[in-house]
Amino acid sequence: xxxxxxxxxxxxxxxxxxxxxxxxxxxxxxxxxxxxxxxxxxxxxxxxxxxxxxxxxxxxxxxxxxxxxxxxxxxxxxxxxxxxxxxxxxxxxxxxxxxxxxxxxxxxxxxxxxxxxxxxxxxxxxxx
Length: 128
Description:
Blueprint: H1 2-17, E1 50-52, E2 58-66, E3 73-76, E4 81-85, E5 97-104, E6 116-125
Parallel strand pairs: 4-6
Antiparallel strand pairs: 1-2, 2-3, 2-5, 3-4, 5-6
C-alpha cells in the first residue's frame, strides 16, 4: 500500500512539473524568491523637511505625535511619518516641533507598525 501511495505522489508531482502557464496568466503556484545579495538601502523620496547631516545621517523636521501603539512616537513632516527610535524623551513629546538627526531604516521591523523607523542620534526643539 505504501508503494502505491509513493507512486501516486510521484506521478502528481511529475504532472505538475511539466505544466506551463499561458503567456500573461498569473502563476497557479507560489514562488519564493530569495536574494543572497545585500545591497544599499533604497533612497528615501525627496522630502522638503529632510536634509543630509553627515555620511549616512540625515536631519528631519516635523511635529511629534503619539503613535497608534502605546509608547510609540511619530514625527510627521507633512509628507512622511518617521517612527522615532531613541529620541530624547524630554524634547520629543506629542505636539512638539522638533528636528532630529540620525539614520532612517526603511523596511525595519518594529512593534509600532507606523512610520519609517528612524534611529535618532540627536534631538532639538525648533520654533513653530
